[in-house]
Automatic annotation (TrEMBL):
EC number(s) on file: 3.6.4.13
SMART domains: DEXDc, DUF4217, HELICc
Domain Helicase ATP-binding residue range list: 157-338
Domain called DEAD-box RNA helicase Q: residue spans: 125-154
Function (record text): RNA helicase.
Protein name: ATP-dependent RNA helicase
PROSITE patterns: DEAD_ATP_HELICASE, HELICASE_ATP_BIND_1, HELICASE_CTER, Q_MOTIF
Organism: Poecilia reticulata
Reaction equations catalysed: ATP + H2O = ADP + phosphate + H(+)
């Protein structure tokens, strides 16, 4: 690719189309103390849609590539600028280029009127009204501490007890697991003749991720305590197959599994007999499809159809996608559709699905120019964990490498500003060893505070108690993904908060959310950063005195943000390994950015990213040179396009295999070829900068944890 082509692509600084400023509205919920309107924060540069390469030369940073060495060290102009920056920061130690100059204007958000869907979580009915075995009711009350039924449980449990297939849809954290686990246990314990271990699997529960498999297995273990003759088991990627085979041989009656590992055993473990399976549960069905597991699902369904008696099938999802509707069509027989609000998974798909989010969830958005994103996240975390206590935060980012990098960076820099108990960081992503992942999962579950940095591997189904904040540092790839992420808080009637980070250019995503009945309030950037005023460790040596005027306060806050950014950058640049980690994180972020679905390309397009500014959000002082693969102009088949087309090929191949399997089994309805829409999990994109040891499976676009 020519350098001019590269420039064309990457010199476009984000700018908000004028229409978005008028269509979006602003909420002042968060701005309790100080109002900071965009008028006061007039940018020094005029608003433009694109900045041409010539204009960009004006800017303080190299947009695409790090400047050639002769420029970095040579031209007096550059040196002069650096000097000014040092002066501006007011401290000899502040080498950071001005964080608050040359940023795109932050648009005024006008919030469209949204009628948010509300689902009542609890009913007045209780488990004891359902004619369940008294020991089961006692276990629910005493071991699981539940007595009243949730709305979804009230509708689902009687339907499943009657033996019907069901398609169940309900908001996150509404108790879907018990809605199928309770009737399953009730019917298994009542089976005549009595269930025995040697019967082998009677129920299969398929879930998309390993953590969810462990969590669900745990629930069955508790529910089955009084019925010791019924044995639950878990099969999942990352575990030793040999040990699993031994457990299968010994006998398991309720098998909870991830799709890849179950399909693997069906094909390769002779002792896994499916002939007795009477229940099949597909939990988080939309996620199973999103991850491209249609081939594995086909193996499972074909395996069951070949040998099994008639069985009861249940499909559950918090969100709907056309794929889920088609899957419901394929694997459910005359199902009952259950939904607390909105259509059920077996209903025909509508144009724009409305999502229900928990009533007690407060949703915020902060518009942050790329350059300021990192320090804004750091300030937010300090505010929640150091200045206000008892917060438990999950931060979603778009790649394993970004998780690793932030964990290293914050774990080293932010913890300096807080006592140990105040601020602890954990990480969870698909490149971690299973043992470590399970340990982190349990550790974060058990802790009352702390920050979990993670990819979307933690977005679905995980029930982590008392999470107070969900931060989406990288925006989700769809509204459904947004709903699942925020659903990790405000569960089962509790309260919680969420904060979505968007750059000014991405502000129209708020309208996309509103189209799905999701309403977010604005949290002002300055209000987030203002927490730095609470600690003089961030004080610069500037002449500004916050007491004198709002402008001086603003300047003071900016100066402190610059001090913190400098600390972050100093850390990154203190070791070549950290610089490399930052570059990997940046590269994987850019890769993920190319994979937004077509209808969101206008909101999230690589062309709108300014590489120099984005690099800053990874603690890099300059845009790194030679990021590979580099972006190409649209339609020019550059490396980014190759990444995309490879993904499409993989999805196509999976769909092809699916068709092949179905052709071998003409008795079953075919899964719709549209399953090739199954997209890769964005959050597990890698930079491609790691060595050749990348796992084979990842090449297929599926990371190990979902095996
Ligand atoms: N009737 C109930 N009363 C009180 N707590 C309940 C009840 N039913 C379930 N819970 C608890 O609520 C939490 C959330 O349940 P669960 O994980 O099944 O929700 P979910 O609807 O599957 O959420 P997601 O869509 O995010 O997977 C769990 O801790 C569970 O033990």
């Amino acid at each position: 690719m020519t350098s001019s082509a590269e420039q064309q692509l990457c010199l476009n600084i984000c700018s908000v189309p004028s229409s978005s400023s008028s269509s979006l509205s602003c909420s002042r919920k968060w701005a309790k103390h100080k109002k900071w309107t965009s008028k006061k924060q007039k940018p020094e540069k005029k608003k433009k849609s694109f900045i041409s390469p010539e204009e960009e030369e004006d800017d303080e940073e190299a947009p695409l590539q790090a400047p050639p060495p002769e420029l970095t060290h040579g031209p007096p102009q550059k040196k002069r600028r650096r000097k000014e920056e040092v002066k501006e920061g007011g401290s000899g130690s502040i080498k950071t280029s001005s964080l608050f100059r040359h940023n795109p204007e932050i648009p005024e958000i006008l919030r469209p009127a949204v009628a948010q869907l509300k689902e009542k979580v609890f009913t007045s009915a209780s488990f004891s009204d359902l004619h369940l075995h008294p020991h089961l009711v006692a276990t629910l009350n005493k071991v699981l501490n539940v007595s009243r039924l949730t709305s979804i449980q009230q509708q689902t449990i009687p339907a499943l007890l009657s033996g019907r297939d069901a398609a169940v849809r309900s908001q996150t954290g509404s108790g879907k697991t018990l809605s199928y686990a309770v009737p399953l246990v009730q019917r298994l314990q009542a089976s005549e003749p009595k269930v025995s271990r040697s019967d082998g699997p009677l129920a299969l529960v398929v879930v998309p991720t390993r953590e969810l498999a462990l969590q669900t297995y745990n629930t069955f273990q508790k529910l089955l305590k009084p019925f010791t003759w019924i044995v639950p088991g878990v099969l999942m990627g990352g575990e030793k197959k040999k040990a699993e085979k031994a457990r299968i041989r010994k006998g398991m009656n309720v098998v909870v599994s991830t799709p890849g590992r179950l399909a693997d055993h069906i094909q390769n473990t002779l002792s896994l007999a499916l002939s007795a399976v009477r229940w099949l549960v597909l939990d988080e069905a939309d996620r199973i499809l999103d991850l491209g597991f249609d081939r594995e699902l086909t193996v499972i369904l074909n395996g069951l159809n070949r040998t099994g008696p008639t069985r009861q099938n249940v499909l559950l999802s918090a969100t709907l996608s056309p794929g889920v509707t088609r899957l419901a069509d394929v694997c459910l027989h005359d199902p009952i559709s259950i939904s607390v609000s909105g259509p059920a998974p077996s209903d025909p798909p509508s144009q724009s699905e409305s999502f229900a989010v928990p009533e007690e969830l407060q949703q915020f958005v902060v518009l942050v120019p790329s350059k300021v994103r990192l320090v804004c996240l750091a300030a937010f975390i300090l505010d929640q964990c150091k200045f206000s206590h008892s917060n438990k935060i999950i931060v979603f980012v778009s790649s394993c490498e970004a998780v690793e990098f932030l964990h290293l960076l914050f774990g080293s820099v932010l913890t300096r500003h807080a006592a140990n108990q105040e601020l602890s960081f954990l990480r969870l992503h698909g490149n971690m060893r299973q043992e470590e992942r399970s340990q982190v999962f349990h550790q974060f579950s058990a802790s009352a505070t702390g920050v979990l940095l993670c990819t979307d591997v933690a977005a679905r189904g995980l029930d982590l108690p008392q999470v107070t904040w969900i931060v989406q540092y990288t925006p989700p790839s769809s509204t459904a993904e947004y709903v699942h992420r925020v659903g990790r808080t405000a569960r089962i009637g509790g309260s919680g908060n969420s904060l979505l980070f968007l750059t000014p250019a991405e502000a129209t995503f708020i309208t996309e959310l509103a189209n799905h009945n999701i309403s977010v309030s604005e949290m002002k950037l300055q209000d987030v950063l203002s927490c730095l005023m609470k600690d003089d460790a961030f004080k610069g040596r500037g002449k500004y005195h916050s007491q004198t005027s709002p402008q001086a306060l603003q300047q003071d806050i900016r100066e402190r943000a610059t001090v913190l950014q400098t600390q972050l950058e100093d850390f990154v640049h203190s070791d070549a390994r950290w610089v490399q980690a930052a570059k990997k994180a940046l590269q994987s972020f850019l890769r993920a950015y190319t994979t937004y679905p077509a209808h969101l390309k206008q909101v999230f397009h690589l062309r709108r990213l300014h590489l120099g500014h984005t690099a800053k959000s990874f603690g890099l002082r300059d845009a790194p040179q030679g990021l590979s693969p580099g972006p190409a102009p649209r339609g020019h088949g550059g490396p980014w396009d190759r990444v995309r087309s490879r993904n499409q090929n993989q999805a196509g191949k999976r769909a092809g295999n699916l068709r092949k399997n179905q052709n071998q089994n003409p008795g079953r309805k075919r899964l719709h070829p549209g399953h090739r829409e199954a997209v890769l999990i964005r959050s597990e994109f890698s930079s491609g900068l790691e060595g050749g040891g990348a796992k084979k499976r990842r090449k297929r676009g599926i990371t190990e944890e979902e095996d």
